[in-house]
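Subject: Interface between my chains keeps coming out wrong

I've been trying for a while to get a sensible model of this assembly. When I model each chain on its own everything looks fine, but I need the whole thing in one frame so I can look at the contacts. Pasting all components below, labels as-is. Any help appreciated, I'm running out of ideas.
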Amino acid sequence: MNQRPDDLHWQAAQYVLGELSPVDAADFEDRLAVDQQAREAVASAVELTAAVAAVADETRPIARRPRRAWEFSRSLGYMCLGAAACLFVMIVVQSVWQHRFANSDAGQLPLAANEQSADADLALAWREVRAEAIEGAEPEMVLASNDVDAGESRSNAGAYLSDDELDVPSWMIEATGPRATP
Amino acid sequence: MSATKTANEPAVTQGGGIDPANVAAFCVEHGAELRRFVVGVLRDREAANDVLQTVFARAIEQCQTVDTASLKGWLFTVALHEALAQRRRLEVMQKAHLKLWWQPARHGETPEESLTRVETVAEVRKALAALPTEQAGVVRARIYDDKTFAQIARETGLPLGTVLTRMRLALEKLRGRLSGNE
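Reply #2:
Try treating it as a single job with all components included. I did that and got this:
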C-alpha cells in the first residue's frame, strides 16, 4: 500500500481516539495483523496522545475522574447491598425482640386496653380469680420479712401456691379457708 | 544448545530459536512500545496489563520456535490477537470501554505503567505552546475535554473536515517536534 507516512500516523491517531468508523476500524485492524509499521504508528499515536493529556493534567485543577458506567453500577450495587443488610438486621432484631416479649410470663404483661375478644375477657376474669386465691392463701406462705411490700408479698405468696390450688374457685377457697373454721 | 549473541539482539540458539534466558530482556526492551500498542487497540490500561502478561508468558514458552529477526513482529502479532480476544471478552461482559484511557492514572503509575516518557511530555508541552490557536483549541477539545470531532464541529460551527484538518496538522507538528529531538 502506497501511503504517505503522515497518512498512516493520522489514521493510527484516529484509530486510538476511536474516531474511525466501524468499517474503517476493522480494515485498519486487518492491516495491523500484517503491517509492523502500522503497529508502531499506533504505539506512537498512543504515546503522543498520552503526553498531550499529561500536559493538560499538569495545568488544570484536580477534577474528579469521570465515572465509568460499570463503576457507577458497582457503587449502586454496594448501596443496595448495604440497604438490604440493614433491613435484614432490623428484621432480625425485631424478631428477637418479639420472641423475647412473647415468651415472657403472661401474668406480668399488662393486658392491651383495646383487646375485645372473648379470650381477653376470660383472661381478665382469671386474673381476678387468681388474685382472690392469693389473698386467701395461708399466712405461713407469706414472706416473713416486714420490709417486703404488701403487693410483693401477695405476689410472692402466690408463687408458693400450686397451679392446682390456683385453679380452685374463690368461693371454695373461702369455704375451706381459716375464716371458715368454726 | 550453544548460544551466540550479537550487540543488540537476544542470544540465538543453534537451532534458530531464541534463548529463553534472554527473552525477558528483549521483552523489557520492547515492552513500553508493546504496551502502547495494546492500549491503542484496547483503549483500556487495566485490560492491557492482562494482555501483556499473557504475551510475555507465551514469548517465553514459544520463543524457541521463533526466528530472531521476526521476534518483534511475532510479539506484536501475538499482542494484537490477545488484545482483540480480550476486547471481545470485555464486550461480552458489557464492560464500558473508556474513552479516557490517555488520562494519567490517579494512583500514581509506575514508570513501567506510564504510556509516555518524561522527556516526551516536556517536548509536547513546548510544542503545544507553539501551535496556532485554532489548532491548539481543537487538540484541547478532543483530548482534554474528550469531545468527538463531530461535537467540536457542532459547537464551533466549523465544518467537520476543517476540524479534522486542524487536528491532523497539530499532531503532525507535535510528532515532528518529537522526531526532531529523538
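Reply #3:
Confirming on my end. Chain B touches chain A through 49 residues (CB under 8 Å).
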